[in-house]
Every structure is written in C-alpha cells, then in structure tokens.
Amino acid sequence: MAVPDKIMHFRRERAQELRQFADKLETYIGNGISTKLYDGVNQLKNPDYIPAFRNEKGELIYNNENIWGYTIDDIKLDVTTLKHLKPKGINKAEVYLNISVVSDYRNWEKIKDPFCELNFNVIIKGINPKTEQGIHYFGFHLDRHNESQSSDEIHPVYHLQYNLNPKDDEEFEYGTTLNLDTPRFLHYPMDLILGLTYLIANFHPTSYSKLIEDREIIKILKNYQEKIWKPYCFSMSNHWKNDGLPIEWHQKSICPFLL
Amino acid sequence: MKPKYLYIDDESPEQLKSIVNGFNDIGLINVELVDLKNIIVFESLKSYIIKHKPDGLIIDLRLDGDGINRLDFPATTLAQDFRTSAVSTDLKPIPLVLCSTSSKIRATYDTDKSSHDLFDYKFEKSANPDWRKFSNKLKSLADTYKWLNEKSRSLEEIIGRKDWKLFDIRIFERFLDEEQKLNSNDIAQFIVKELFHHPGILVKERTVAARLGIDIEASVNEWDRLKKEILSDCLYTGAFSKGWERWWHDKVALKFQSISNGEKLQNLNAEQRVSYINKAGFKVNAAQPIKPYCKSTEFWSTCEFYKKPLDPFEGFRIFESVELKPWQEPKYLSFSAELERKGRDKGLRPHPSELDRIKDLKETLS
C-alpha cells in the first residue's frame, strides 16, 4: 500500500528537515554522524514504509497510511565531558542512541500527544585501560508508556529510566550499587532531532554551543519544540487555571533548551 | 579473449622480463612491453599506444627516472593526457595501472594527490609479487571497462542491486544526474576507490568475520561453509567484483537477524554472536581481542596491521590521504600495533586527532 500524496508531502518535509539537521551535525561534529540519520531520511521518503505500533488497546496496527516514523540504530557520539567520570581511569567514552518514533501525521499541528510510540534508548560505553575488565556501561531510556500494559507502578506517559546494566549481562557485578525500575522520571518527549540535540548538549557541549548559533538549526529546533513540547506543556499546565497572577518564573531558567 | 595490457617502463627490457613473464605465466591477461628504444617524444608514444589498441596500460611511475630508455615525462603526464583524450575524443577510457618500487611511490605519488584519480590501481615491484592477485585485478579492470564502454549501464546493473535507495542517498546521487553522464573511468574510480577501499556499505571478508564475532583462523572449514551456506547472497556481484571480493554489510546484518530471533549484531558481543551462529548448525570459534591491551569483543572492524577483529572503540583511526565521506567508515590500528609502531613501512599511522589519546594511554600504562 502506498501512502497518499498529501501525507507523502508531509513526510518529505520531515525528511528534508532531518537531512538539513544531519548535514549540520556533519559540519559541527563530523565523523560520519550524519549517515545514520540518512536512514531516517530514507524511511520518511519511502512511500512503501509505514511503521507498525500498538494502539491503546494493545492491538498491533500496521499499514495505517496516516502513520509515519523511523527506526535508527547505533547513532554514535563521542563523550567529551570525561572529567567527572567514575570509576577513575576511564579515558574514553561513547554514546550510542537507538531510536524509534511512530507518529500520526494528523496530530502534528494539534495540542495532542505527538507520538503513538517512542523508544529512545541510550547506552554509554566507557573504557578503562587499567582494569582487567576494561569496558564499562551505563544506560538510560525514554519511553512512551502504552496504556494497554497494566502495571501497579505509576507510569508517566513519557518517562526516563536509568539502567546500570544496559547490556543485560547476567554476570554483572552490582557491587554496592542497587538497580530498580522505579522511579520512572517524568520527562518531555523527544524525537530524533530534539533527542540528539539533548545528547549533544550533555555529552558534546562545545558542539552544542555551535549548533544553537546556527540559523537553520535554530529554525528546525524551534519548530520541533513547538510541535512536540508545546502540546505536552500546554496540556499539563491546563490542570490549573491561571487566575491572572503574572508568570514571573522564566521558562528558559526551567528549561535551558527552549529557543 | 584475454585483455591486452601495454607495459611502459624506462628500464631495460632484460630487467623487466620478470614482470612481463609474471603476468603472462598466470595467463589471465596478456602483457606486452613497449620498446621505448626508438620512442623519445610524447606524441610518438601516444600514437604507438593508439595504434596497438590495448585494453589497459601499465605505466612505471618514473618514466623520467634513470632507466636506459628514460623519457622526458613522468607517468602522470601520460595518464593525464589519456584521461583528457578520453573525454574530448572518441578514444574509449581504459584502465591505467601504476607500478613502481614502494619507496618511489611513497616519495612521488603519495605526495601528489592530484594524480590519484588518474590511475585505477597501483602495484609495487617487490621481491615476491603476488602475480595472481594483480592479474585478477587487472583482468577485472579491463573486462569491466570494456563492459561499461559498450553502452550506458544503469546503476542497478553496475552494483548488481535494485534496492540501492535503501542506502544513504548521498552515495549514489552522482549517478542520477541527467546532465553529466559518468564515463567508465568515473564509475571505476567511484566503485574501486570510494566503495571498495573504505569500509561502508561494502566490507572485506575479515570485517564480515569480525562483525559476526568469528575467528577465521580458528574456524577455517566452518567459516567457508558458513560463507557458502548462509552468506552467499551477501557477496557483492556488481562491477569489478571479479577483482575485489566485497560483502554487503546490510545483507550480512539481516542474515544474522534471521538466525538470532531478531537480535542485532551491534548489540551483542562476539561470544553471543557466535552462539547464535552455532545454534544454526555451525561450529565456529569466537574471536578474542588483540592481547594484551584490547578488552572489548564487540567487534566491528579489524586492526589494519594485525588484520584481527577490533572494536573501533578501542582502536585508533589511521591517517588517510583523502578526507572520508560521511558514509565511509574510518580504518583503525589496535593499541598493540601502534605501541610497536607496526605498519609504518606500509604507511599506516594514526590520525593526528588520536595522538593525544595515544600519549595519555602510554602514560597510563607505563
């Protein structure tokens, strides 16, 4: 089944933005980082590609032409913020991002949940040349909770969780650390563009400061913040009525990513 | 018919006999030495070549060296003229192959990057040349140039795959330009230099093994069986594939997923990858990290010196004379190789951006 022209037009716009973003990352960060992002460009432009997802009833939905998205594995970024890394002796670290985004194009301009599914999985790998085992991992992921999965634990729809043993190594030595599923930290949703920018800001801060000076990048980021964060923030603040008091807390001091 | 190469060298025919015989004894190509005794000026050499209609040229780098038949111009001048003529006249492009001693190549050719696009292949006049390997490549070059010269070939025909749109669109964009059609030389340069010489969508056999976590030496027969039974559709069969064995990485990765319940190579270490392969009916052995400094078995590349599996994370990017395209992957040296300064004679050295890390690591370990 091929996707109708109108929706393909929308998808090609997203592909164009992703391509622009990828090319800018190649300029500011390099090392072939853009080539993985081009996988996403291809998927967006391919009319035969429609991602599948589970709806709120838990049914697997595929071939719904309104649905767009992409899955990209192994986007690699050097960690340049090595100063406070523990254990001591780690002299190199890299971040690997696996991401899949599924969205309904009809929700893009609305104050609605922007995604039907989101998996944003990050593994950080560090190397300690002095120790026997040598390789260290840390991980976290940002997921969209599917309402059909019942659970006793509280699940903010978009939540972030840490994972001390992201490789699921059965012989992992927990030492004096403790790993558990909760809490699931409330977090705003992030697609590839916002999410990768988030990782760059945290792990490659010098490149981040260059990125947010770039006119085209600013335009893209503003657009994605508006499409993805505005519905999230408006919907949550709507819990309270503004009784006319002036808003004196500056939004950028809460969220320095806002542009 | 065997492709005919004309061989142009300023040394005496007696000295060159071993090279001519080396190729002709293997029998894949025919090499004829051009007698330079009566040829001094450029134009007469050129008309000699045109008259003899070769399928390719082997040219000594320093034609203006100290041989008894020295000419007034180097190989690059001749090559440049042939490449220009191929564009401006009806003269069809043919492969141009450079030969020289390794020290001369390093001193002259490697420093003059503008001439790199002129030649399709270079081989060194060493003590023990691998004539079969060189013959295979030269035959493949000549045959494929001829095939490309016959008529305009589609990208699908050239790379032997219809689904090229799966790849980074920047890779094949140059083939889509209606205005500027690529000639055989452009295509050869792109396939051999850009796709074959850098890991990316195509990789060498040793990289395939590394990504599957396999120690080739410790699994010889089983590795051959695996290639035949599981990986045969992953082999690159497009242009120049007879001269260079390369594998489609994406196909290898998918093939692995078909036997691993969907687990992806990059999320597993060598032992885990090998355990899935062995569950599918093989007995291959997992590769070990290059001792004593490497620890990770999440192999993705190989050490350019030791040719052993390496997690690029633990490797050091090597210096390459041309800037990599975003879709080309770097090549790496392991720390052991770097520490012992291995491969310097082959031009292997770390990229300047790695020097600080090497220094730190040496200090840490001392």
Structure explained in plain terms:
The complex is a heterodimer of chains A (259) and B (366). With 259 residues, chain A is an alpha+beta fold. Chain A has one domain. Helix content of chain A is 32%, strand content 22%. Chain A contains 6 helices and 8 strands. In chain A, strand 5 (117-127) and strand 6 form a beta hairpin. The longest helix of chain A is centred in the N-terminal third of the chain and has 24 residues, at 5-28. Chain B is of the alpha/beta class. Among the domains of chain B are: 4-148, Response regulator (Rossmann fold); 289-366, no CATH class. Chain B has helices at residues 13-26, 42-52, 75-88, 102-109, 131-150, 155-159, 169-172, 184-196, 205-211, 220-229, 249-259, 270-279, 335-339, 355-365, and strands at residues 4-8, 30-33, 56-60, 96-100, 121-124, 202-203, 247-248, 301-302, 309-310, 316-317, 332-333. In chain B, the strands form 4 sheets. A 5-stranded parallel beta sheet of chain B has the order 2-1-3-4-5. Chain B has a two-stranded antiparallel sheet with strand order 6-7. In chain B, strand 4, helix 4 (102-109) and strand 5 (121-124) form a beta-alpha-beta unit. The interface between A and B is medium-sized, with 26 and 27 residues.
